[in-house]
UniProtKB/TrEMBL annotation:
Organism: Lepraria neglecta
Cofactor: Fe cation
Keywords: Iron, Metal-binding
The keyword Metal-binding is assigned to this record: yes
InterPro entries reported for this sequence: Phytyl_CoA_dOase-like
Domain of life: Eukaryota
Gene3D superfamilies: q2cbj1_9rhob like domain
Protein name: Phytanoyl-CoA dioxygenase
GO molecular function (one): metal ion binding
Family the UniProt entry places it in: Belongs to the PhyH family.
Length: 315
């Protein structure tokens, strides 16, 4: 049943701690939902300060100089530093932050593409921004029974070199059977066409099955393999008028700092390279349904205690 509207508490920056029926319909129809002012300016500022502190204080001395790659310029990132980052805070470089001879061409705080993947546990301000009443209510409203936060990241999209993210579905990278991933994506700075805002193939979550998944290969390394399990979430109503992926049209999602964007795991979305002078810092974490199968093939394996519950009182 769709949740009913609840008036916002006076101190809340968001219009409500619950999704309205209209917001839920928008999410179900489009596969994404933009919620302006979900975070207060002071929370955004605290998250940005923490990010700048991390960027200026991490050490290069023992860093393997791992670059984050989406597979367009070079093969997907899959070294040990990346594969064991699920319970750590690690720093991945922009591919274009290096000269042809492999030297860093930017100061380190301007060279990092992303920080991940355990901010939701290890960084107090990011932990606080993850385990909120609003996020709990959203997870309940979109149908989670036991939402588990399995990864979190800061994506920096650095000025001039911030890498493009090609069209993808999050459930390809965070596969459960049946698929269940949902992205909570939060702008820490204004995101515009110039600095590489997200764009979305509206409604594609209903016509784009999750056909492949990103796995640890038996022979070692990582790669894609065909999905053998379900390709849509449980009980999903598919759009009968399917489209080829290449025919999809993308709508820009320019948003202000403090905006939360909810992204369905089957939705095709992307972001372009940042050629502007302005960075585009965002924080994102993903939830999966803890009751669905999550197998050993997934590139991201759970910490010893399992993926973190978004809230404790599951029904
Ligand atoms: O922030 C971006 O540019 C891309 C993020 C994204 O696609 C994701 O988190 O799934």
């Amino acid at each position: 049943m769709a949740p009913s509207f609840i008036s916002p508490p006076a101190e809340s920056p968001s219009t409500s701690t619950k999704l309205t029926t209209e917001q839920l319909t928008t999410y179900n129809t489009n596969g994404y939902l933009i919620i302006p002012s979900a975070l207060s300016p002071s929370t955004v500022s605290a998250l940005l300060s923490e990010t700048h502190h991390m960027l200026s204080s991490f050490s290069l001395t023992d860093h393997p100089m791992t670059k984050f790659s989406t597979g367009e310029q070079s093969s997907h990132v899959g070294d040990d530093y990346f594969l064991t980052s699920g319970d750590k805070i690690r720093f991945f470089f922009e591919e274009d932050a290096f000269s042809t001879t492999g030297q860093l061409t930017k100061p380190k705080h301007r060279a990092i593409n992303k920080i991940g993947h355990y901010l939701h546990k290890l960084s107090p301000p990011f932990r606080e921004a993850t385990f909120t009443k609003l996020n709990e209510e959203i997870a309940r409203a979109v149908g989670f029974r036991d939402p588990r936060v399995l990864q979190s990241m800061i994506i920096c999209k650095q000025p001039k070199i911030g890498g493009r993210v090609p069209p993808h579905q999050d459930s390809t990278f965070l596969y459960t059977n049946p698929p269940s991933a949902v992205g909570f994506w939060i702008a820490l700075e204004d995101c515009t066409r110039e600095n590489g805002c997200l764009s979305f193939a509206k409604g594609s979550h209903r016509r784009a099955p999750v056909k492949s998944r990103f796995v640890r290969k038996q022979e070692g390394g990582i790669g894609f393999e065909d999905v053998k399990g379900a390709q849509y979430p449980e009980g999903f109503e598919m759009d009968e008028n399917g489209k080829e992926e290449a025919e999809e049209e993308y709508e820009f999602g320019e948003v202000k700092a403090g905006t939360l964007v909810l992204i369905h795991g089957n939705l095709l979305h992307k972001s372009e390279k940042n050629l502007s002078e302005k960075s585009r810092f965002i924080y994102t974490f993903h939830c999966i349904e803890g009751r669905n199968e999550y197998d050993r093939k997934n590139w991201l394996q759970p910490p010893e205690k399992g993926f973190t519950r978004l809230y404790e009182n599951t029904s």
